[in-house]
Amino acid sequence: MDIYLNRLEEAKREIERAEYILIGGGAGLSAAAGITYGGKRFTDNFADFIEKYGFEDMYSPMFYKFKTQEEHWAHLARHIDLNRFLEPPAELYKRLFELVKDKNYFVITTNVESQFEKSGFDKERIFEVQGNYGKLQCAKGCHNKLYPDEELIKAMAAQTKDCRVPTCLVPKCPVCGGEMYPNLRKDNYFVQDEDWYAASGRYGKWLSGANPKKTVLLELGVGFNTPAIIRFPFEKMAYRGEAAKLIRINSGAPEAMRGNENNVISFDENMSDVIEWFLGSDMNEQNRNGNKADKYTA
Ligand SMILES: [Zn+2]
Q1: 142-200: per-residue pLDDT in tens?
Q2: CATH of domain 3-35+89-130+192-288
Q3: Four-residue CA torsion sign, 36, 29, 27, 205
Q4: Centre of ligand 1 from the C-alpha of residue 163, in Å
């Protein structure tokens, strides 16, 4: 029996006997689900931006200093429309929901494209720590309110010409008159509104109500970009016995911290295959030997 199979069976047993499952979802989860920021998905949707700016993936333009707000929003609208509004619920997220729907689950995630909610997870059991593409805030955080942006994003995406939106569509802060930005944590101006604090409170309450011996932590595609949000706390909870086991699926950095190996079951294999195994589906020989074709490191 190969080692991969041992880990699969041990992790599956842990999930089956768990009453509480805490999912930690990182960028690698969405990448494994097919919401990739490079390759064909990028070139098919950003040909005009590639020609004009030479961008090589969807990630780098988020940090590019566009010369005008019209260009800046043309890019943001295309990006957000594609990744937040047009993208259907991904199969991997739906399978994940199948896995936990009858448990007392909670989700903490740094992902901002609403895939958990789209895939059936209860909104009251999701804490999106880093924000969501679906809302705007004052870029300087001058007031604590968020503004749903679907209508505006759709209008901007539809009216983009030569990589620019019409000036009349560029959003302005209704309080200070300054620039707006999607509600994403990129600097100290990130707005945490009432809903954010309510979700944070529900997360804390769920944690204190979960029986450690019957709790499994399922960490998916969480790397080292913002490890203080999910990765380090999960590792610490496992170490302290605040959970029965930490199951980590991560193609790039699956290892437990030294001294914590007995509390962590690590997988660097294909995430969908591992989740399917947990759901009880059979895998073929090739998959069982470990298919590392997918890269889903956060
Ligand atoms: Zn403002």
Answers
A1: 999 999 999 999 999 999 999 999 999 999 999 999 999 999 999 999 999 999 999 99
A2: 3.40.50.1220
A3: positive
A4: 26
